[in-house]
Amino acid sequence: MRGKIAFDRYSCYSARVSYQDKSYLIKGLFNANRAIDGDTVAFRVIPGTGSSPSMDEDDSLGGVEGVGKGDADESAAAKGVDKEPERERDQEAQVVSILERTPRHFCGSVAIKFSTDDATGDITPEVDVSAARKSAHFRAVKKNLPSVRLVLSSVTEYIGKRIVVSIESWERDSKYPRGRVVDVLGLIGDRDVEAEVILREHQIRHFGLTNPLLLSELPEMPWNPDYVETQNGRRRDLREEQICSVDPPGCKDIDDALHFKYLLDKNGRRTGLCEIGVHIADVSHFVRAGTQIDSEARRRGTTVYLFDRRVDMLPKLLTEELCSLRGQVERYAFSCLFTIETETGDIKDTQFCKSLIKSKASFMYQEAQDIIDNTARYGVTTQTAPCLNDLNHPSVDVTPALAQGLRGLLMIAMKLRQVRSTGVVHPKLTEVIHTDFEDYSSVRDHLVGVDMCLFCLGVYWGKVSRDQYHSLTASAPLACGRALKELSPNAAFLLLSGEGADQSQKTRVAFGRDKGEAEAGLLAMGLGRVHFFRPALIQPAVKRKAPNRGYAFSAVVLYPLVRVLYPNGQI
């Protein structure tokens, strides 16, 4: 039989090979017969394996003196333990021939421990290694590859370095294959070197975008759009729309942008409908089928993001310039225009088109959030705001229409999120979408026979108004508790509260009063059981608005100090 062998991820002593939808187990180096992960092999089934059901040693008491299988069954029955059904043992196989070697190079290092001087960077082996020593074992980053025997000009030259090795041969009577060094990447632990190892081990193509033939297919700079396409109707001119993008800090490949506007009647009054535009960079205008750029993009498949870099699918002239929807520049795009009912979020109409757009700004998340929150500043007149995500335009004039557009996008997003299913399917789970956390009359049937309620609704202080915060923190859990008391009086209630919650309402901190109000109210209801979980600090997922310094000082220095001085006090 013929198949491709796949070793366990962390071991070279266990593998599987498949034939006609059936999988066979290969145990040990002898049965693997010098095959490595990914090889195409010929194999035979070992007679007498997989023919009878068995129990693993850990699942029986057969290893205990005087206790046989029957005794084990009786013992399990006496303890009231359900005996698991016996399962058939996997059929085992043995490789008889390697038909095709996987053409791979492997990253790793010589198997000699070392230490590095932090001041000088000098590498010192932890064992005495002679300068004349010319052989060593190679230990691959890939854990399921056996050690490889290397013959080197000098072992000391390779200690502490990441190297690339190819397997040249594996003699029949040898435990280890022989290999040769094909590349030296650099020092172990170096960020660039380890990134190179990750890319090579996962076979991610990260070279070739500087090929002169490929670069010759790119348009000449400076580039300008062809306005004839908008005039003859092939592209829709959307340059006057209040389009912007919102991305993480430092984002250069801005491949999507949005706009929002209320739709008005002929008298200039709102119709109850709005338009949301989703604009995606038109890469296909620059990448034609069958070109060198297209072929290279097919090999890569996607852009790969590492911890400190990205491996582009396309040349940077496209990803960071011509196909990046940056602020204040004209770009080709594919656009989808949704007509949406403002109150419900229902989609009434959809249009797709090629377009020419001009984004007004490239915002970072926090910049967009500041514009949304600061209605007093960004609401009536045009104001200048920082735009740190666009180094070419570090500031932008935020018009009332642009600010309104950001708020409108958030409004529709919240409406859509309220009715969005989690998508989780489980026989013990019934998902109910509920939006009014102070009125449970519409979901009464779901609250009958409840054993426990976990109430974890919360919001960052400062992200909503004082009334909204009190409603979410105190009124909502109390309303839920009252509904539960009526319909499932014996249910337990677990509330995500917070350190500093004061049920006596003596604290001067509004946060503590609201949390304490919720706790005291739940305790007074007479529910079956009430529990509170009080985390001391929940780190914000996004950077807080001012005063950041005061918050940092309080959280890191002042708060721990006061807790030590006044362990039983309310702060």
Description of the molecule:
- GO terms for molecular function: 3'-5'-RNA exonuclease activity; endonuclease activity; RNA binding.
- The protein is extended.
- The strands form nine sheets. The chain has a five-stranded antiparallel sheet with strand order 3-2-1-4-7. The protein has a five-stranded mixed β-barrel with strand order 8-11-12-14-13. The chain has a five-stranded mixed sheet with strand order 15-22-21-18-17.
- It has four domains: 99 residues, OB fold (Dihydrolipoamide Acetyltransferase, E2P) (Beta Barrel), CATH 2.40.50; 97 residues, OB fold (Dihydrolipoamide Acetyltransferase, E2P) (Beta Barrel), CATH 2.40.50.700; 144 residues, no CATH class; 98 residues, NAD(P)-binding Rossmann-like Domain (Rossmann fold).
- About 5% of the residues have low confidence.
- Helix 10 runs parallel beside helix 11.
- It has 571 residues and is α+β, with helices and mostly antiparallel strands.
SSE arrangement:
Blueprint: E1 2-7, E2 14-19, E3 22-27, H1 28-32, E4 40-45, E5 53-54, H2 69-78, E6 87-88, E7 93-100, E8 105-110, E9 114-116, E10 123-125, E11 135-140, E12 148-151, E13 161-169, E14 178-187, H3 191-201, H4 212-215, H5 228-231, E15 236-237, E16 244-247, E17 256-264, E18 270-281, H6 292-300, E19 304-305, E20 310-311, H7 316-322, E21 330-341, E22 347-358, E23 361-364, H8 365-373, E24 383-386, E25 395-398, H9 400-418, E26 452-455, H10 466-487, E27 492-496, H11 510-524, E28 529-533, H12 548-565
Helix pairs in contact: 10-11
Biased composition (Basic and acidic residues): 80-91
Domain RNB: 235-548
Region (Disordered): 49-91
